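FAQ

Q: What does a record look like?
A: Structure on top, sequence underneath. For example:
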């Protein structure tokens, strides 16, 4: 990596020249850096806003899942079988599904070698279990903190190689060349540790490639289980011409909001009590009871939230598990109350002689709890017996489920869509590789844990392609400025304008909260075209007048203000894509309801639910953003089938040796 200085207008900026910049320090970004180095691409640097800020480092569940090809047990499996199962969720390209499946064991085995404690039996079989949308028991776990262990192991490997890590730099712009066929040639970063003027704060990266591992668009939701430190950076990619792919498909579910954590698995299977209170915590009531026909239906629906955790419109009618999510939403948004899980008492409807009457449960729930030997006591006692680390996790964060209520909401958890990528994870902008959750390679439904597999497969594939095809020097600095100077000056003007308009009162936090409320209300798991249109009008005005409207109190808020712009653009693109889907006839699917008209009544919501007719299951939605007009163009492309491929060894050997597999 070479460091130099360049002049842009009246400013002198530091510029770093190198082959590849990896943006992000989660499981995908760290693996990308590690794989590049292992492939001989050493002119690299990992750039991160904060080494410990990402989702991989700070999230999990009761038993966080890694999904990969079966490695134990008696059920036969193959990459083709796994690819078909991934595609069954809808709107997923076959070549990407096959790549995810075929490469899954490589990523998994590497993590084992790096020290991630996945369990195996005495014969070395890494035996799995079934997760959601999984017919083959391919799931495995290292406990509640699986992704944290992954990032820690990968970071150790990266640091052992002395790969440069530039911490505290927020990437605020992507520089490209070309008009029709765009190529990424660099980045603009904001050094958040620097003081002084624009010249001191901004740093340029002149690079051949960018691997973009910034995670999902976490910052645009009010109700979110993403860690508070995670924001996402899809907006600057959209502004640079990177398309969105399946951005409408996100996953939502019940989660705690004081300490953000998914409440799946054993947190539900021990059947806690659901209560709501007024805003001051008074007047508690078990609000689920009036909506269920029998205690057994209610108790079993709560139990099933364990492995039917994501909100699913197919599981509402008939008082199924996702009916619980709808009732939680109803209490919070329509009644203005707060909702909690209570692990200190059994649900009132379960009681017979002051104890839980387990005979009320339907067979599936009863058999599971019997096999786990938890047909006794109160929810927290059952949780400690069944999964003590799940209890200890909250205790570690100052919440004792033996005595504390756990406040919850229905929260955004994962974006199945994101930025456009092919099966090498290169976007429509050449030399720009979105990997991990920021890439939109999943379809409508996905097996639980496939996101962790994707972090390893996508980053490995991008690194391999760069090593073979794109391992060349970056542009000369003068040529970099010739091609990207106009874009750099636009970014400099925006940042300079914000710094020059400092006032006594900041509105940065307020503006962010407004965007987040709009997205959770209109672009979350309940969607209605009329409300989305109102949100789009507000967002477009805010984007066009961003520098005029935004007020920062001091220069330390510059990064937060620019994040707001990114969030606004991301929200605008996502809502535009959602509206197009609805206006084109799309219905309720994945993890969201489409309403024919909005209603404050839960029963009316069910009646107004627009069913999914399967219109777009065999298509992938793409969306592009016009930065000059702040408008979006939405299109649909047919899902590519699993490709016919040559599996004759001698043929594969020859193609591999001649590097034809990279053509």
């Amino acid at each position: 990596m070479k460091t130099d200085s360049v002049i842009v207008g009246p400013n002198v900026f530091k510029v770093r020249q190198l082959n590849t910049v990896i943006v992000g320090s989660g499981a995908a970004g760290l693996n990308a850096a590690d794989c590049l180095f292992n492939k001989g691409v050493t002119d690299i640097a990992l750039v991160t806003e904060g080494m410990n800020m990402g989702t991989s480092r700070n999230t999990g569940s009761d038993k966080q899942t890694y999904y990969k090809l079966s490695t134990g047990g008696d059920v036969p499996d193959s990459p083709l079988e796994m690819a078909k199962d991934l595609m069954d969720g809808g709107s997923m390209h076959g070549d990407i599904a096959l790549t995810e499946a075929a490469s899954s064991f490589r990523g998994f085995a590497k993590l084992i070698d790096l020290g991630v404690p996945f369990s195996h039996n005495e014969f070395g079989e890494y035996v799995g279990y079934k997760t959601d949308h999984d017919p083959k028991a391919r799931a495995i776990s290292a406990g509640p903190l699986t992704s944290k262990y992954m990032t820690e192991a990968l970071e150790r490997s990266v640091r052992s190689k002395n790969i440069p890590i530039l911490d505290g730099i927020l990437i605020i712009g992507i520089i490209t060349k070309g008009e029709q066929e765009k190529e990424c040639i660099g980045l603009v970063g904001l050094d958040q540790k620097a003081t002084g003027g624009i010249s001191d704060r901004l740093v340029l990266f002149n690079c051949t490639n960018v691997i973009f591992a910034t995670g999902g668009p976490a910052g645009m939701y009010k109700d979110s289980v993403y860690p508070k430190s995670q924001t996402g950076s899809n907006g600057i990619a959209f502004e640079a011409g990177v398309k969105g792919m399946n951005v409408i498909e996100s996953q939502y579910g019940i989660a705690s909001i004081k300490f953000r954590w998914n409440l799946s698995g054993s947190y539900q299977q021990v059947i806690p009590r659901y209560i709501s209170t007024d805003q001051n915590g008074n007047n508690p009531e078990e609000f689920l009871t009036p909506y269920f026909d029998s205690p057994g239906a209610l108790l079993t629906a709560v139990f099933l939230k364990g492995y039917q955790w994501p909100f699913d419109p197919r599981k509402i009618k008939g008082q199924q598990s996702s009916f619980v999510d709808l009732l939680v939403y109803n209490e919070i948004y329509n009644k203005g109350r707060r909702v909690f899980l209570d692990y200190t008492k059994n649900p009132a409807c379960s009681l017979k002689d002051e104890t839980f009457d387990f005979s009320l449960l339907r067979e599936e729930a009863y058999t599971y709890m019997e096999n786990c030997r938890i047909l006794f006591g109160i929810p927290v006692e059952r949780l400690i017996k069944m999964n003590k680390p799940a209890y200890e996790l909250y205790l570690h964060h100052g919440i004792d489920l033996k005595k504390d209520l756990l406040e919850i909401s229905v929260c955004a958890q994962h974006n199945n869509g994101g930025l456009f990528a092919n099966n090498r994870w290169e976007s429509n902008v050449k030399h720009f590789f979105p990997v991990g959750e920021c890439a939109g390679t999943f379809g409508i439904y996905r097996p639980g844990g496939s996101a962790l597999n994707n972090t390893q497969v996508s980053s490995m594939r991008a690194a391999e392609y760069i090593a073979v095809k794109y391992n060349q020097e970056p542009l000369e600095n003068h040529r970099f400025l010739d091609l990207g100077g106009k874009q750099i000056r636009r970014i400099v003007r925006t940042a300079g304008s914000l710094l020059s308009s400092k006032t006594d009162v900041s509105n940065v936090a307020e503006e962010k909260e407004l965007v987040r409320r709009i997205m959770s209300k209109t672009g979350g798991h309940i969607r209605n075209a009329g409300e989305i249109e109102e949100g789009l009008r507000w967002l477009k005005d805010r984007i066009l007048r961003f520098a005029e409207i935004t007020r920062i109190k001091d220069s330390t808020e510059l990064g937060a203000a620019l994040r707001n712009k990114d969030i606004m653009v991301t929200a605008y693109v996502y809502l535009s894509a959602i509206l197009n889907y609805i206006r084109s006839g799309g219905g309720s699917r994945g993890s969201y309801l489409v309403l024919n008209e909005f209603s404050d009544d839960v029963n009316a919501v069910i009646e107004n639910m627009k069913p999914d007719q399967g219109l777009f299951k065999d298509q992938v939605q793409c969306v592009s953003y016009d930065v000059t007009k702040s408008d979006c163009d939405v299109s649909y492309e047919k899902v590519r089938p699993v490709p016919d491929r040559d599996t004759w060894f001698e043929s594969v050997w020859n193609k591999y040796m001649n590097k034809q597999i990279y053509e």
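Q: Is there anything notable about this one?
A: The chain has a mean pLDDT of 95.
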